[in-house]
Amino acid sequence: MAGGFAIQHILIEGRPALVLTGELDLCVAEEFERALLAALAAREAGGDLALDMEKVDFFDSSGLHALLRGARVAAESDTCLCVLASPAVTRVFDLAGVNPRSVPAIRLRAR
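^ that's the sequence the OP posted. Answer follows.
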């Protein structure tokens, strides 16, 4: 899916989750953030939110900022973002010097 981006809203065991594919860059970061905040609002109180980002082949700092803003909202409601990350996603965390363990609302698992 070169050059494209898609967000799929799914349910996993009755809980909302997002599946992201393609290139998450400045052009679509706002769309991602809106979808993330809507999914956080739709889930049950205290329930975690799964983000499958395994098929994100490009991820830049604007995507990271949107994810971290979502994590801040998640933390305010004792929610964890469970992120299944592609190498592109983990690379930006590394390049930006963001240790996922230092962001309590993010649980990052690399493939």
